[in-house]
Design brief:
2 copies of one chain form a homodimer. With about 230 residues, chain A is of the alpha+beta class. Chain A folds into 2 domains: about 130 residues, Jelly Rolls (Sandwich); about 80 residues, Winged helix-like DNA-binding domain superfamily/Winged helix DNA-binding domain (Arc Repressor Mutant, subunit A), CATH 1.10.10.10. The first copy, chain A, contains 8 helices and 11 strands. Chain B binds a DNA duplex (30 and 30 nucleotides) through helix 7.
DNA sequence: CGCGAGCTTGACGTTGTTCAACTAGAGTGG
DNA sequence: CCACTCTAGTTGAACAACGTCAAGCTCGCG
């Protein structure tokens, strides 16, 4: 699973998270030295809720599902994370335990940074820490949106929401190749996989979307948006 | 509503939030000068979702309901906050807009600190900012718990959860005078007020709790805990 | 003493889950 | 290259969970 040989370089990397942009060249070199580059195959677990959080991770490429594990072994998706997002910030300055799990939805390359190095930068560099706060709060905004979605909307609206989220934030195209399974979608919209099928079928009938195998196309964005707002 | 005359003093205040403990006396004096002390009566709105967030607030005394407002004018309770908790940290370094509303469940005294002063401290003092990160992440843990509660448990479990939360974290006693209405409880457990009544009645019949007017008593903590875990 | 907000209760309809049977497609070994 | 298996997806029927509505009640307050 792990690939020791690094192919990326912090100093020249264009995908840096906002907090890293404010660091100096010397810091980038230091981080580069305290960094691991790991490949994960589709389905593999990247971090495990409850495990000791020894590092903070940055998605260099690929798609990640961040989720909570429940008593009855179900998954509650917190977020689908594309490249350039960070994983594990919520473990900072706690008891250094991951609050959630994350797994690779597509093959991924992950940069893993020692959590103590990260915490040291926060402690010694207020501007760096402020960027971390900013990032945490942007997660918070997304969480609140999902909160409202799940508590207030019913199935049609929740699935419409999920499809729009994927279109706008993940695949960034109204036509895309779906890499999430029915089950992933179900965990995302908080319903059973059977219900996902039923509603997708209805959406197809109503010409809102077109599905050919894994290929999805949003045919009527506006109505989908209305459904997500009203139901 | 506002009381200009300050009765509290930052330097001697024993209720400081963890991030303030690491500041020096000079900083406490500075904050004391950039601080307002405001009284809110039960029911009054302390901060309004979407409004310009010009300050961060600290609950000196009283009980606060932090909640999201939805399109259809319903409230989703994020948290019930007791004294010594902060309100509005999620507005830091964003577009300085409150991500949620908060209202007084009981009469409150609130210390209000200029958000720019607060952000300046974060930027210039990594240790201060790190404490803020720690606080944000402890909110995150609570949010995740509520997330699981609301998505996975059904009504009995959700109400049991709410009652245990109030017992352990708010009133800190198995016997307490309930200051939340049926409606508040309903928003907290994400169900209708009618359902709250029905389940409370069932809990009373089953001798799990005793209710005399506003006075609540947890009679069978262990079983309530089991219900919160299993259902 | 009467009014009104908050609470209680029952009947009913809707939403969404569960279970079971079935289908399609991808991967595997002979 | 074909049969076999295994997983993911689909579909329908039955049922449980929960909200809504309407009517009645209670208690604090003017």
């Amino acid at each position: 699973m792990a690939v020791n040989q690094k192919k990326i370089n912090c100093t020249s990397c264009k995908k840096k998270s906002s907090c890293f942009n404010i660091l100096r060249k010397a810091d980038h070199k230091f981080i580069d030295a305290n960094r691991l580059e790991i490949k994960f195959k589709k389905g593999e677990i990247i971090c495990k809720q409850g495990a000791f959080a020894s590092n903070i991770m940055f998605i260099y490429s690929g798609l990640v599902k961040s989720y909570l594990e429940t008593e009855n072994d179900k998954h509650v998706v917190l977020n689908i994370l594309p490249a350039e997002k960070m994983i594990g910030l919520s473990a900072l300055f706690g008891n250094n335990v991951f609050l959630h799990s994350a797994s690779a939805v597509e093959d991924c390359v992950i940069c893993s940074i020692d959590i103590k190095t990260f915490e040291n930068y926060c402690n010694s560099n207020g501007a760096f820490a402020s960027e971390v706060i900013k990032t945490l709060n942007s997660f918070c905004t997304e969480n609140y949106d999902r909160y409202i979605c799940i508590t207030q909307k019913q199935m049609d609206g929740r699935l419409a929401d999920a499809l729009l989220y994927l279109t706008n934030n993940i695949y960034k195209n109204r036509s895309f190749s779906m890499t999430l399974s029915r089950n992933d979608l179900a965990e995302m919209a908080n319903m059973s996989p059977e219900s996902i099928t039923r509603i997708l079928t209805k959406f197809k009938k109503d010409k809102l979307i077109k599905i050919t195998g894994k290929q999805y196309e949003i045919k009527n964005y506006e109505r989908l948006l209305k459904i997500s707002q009203l139901e």
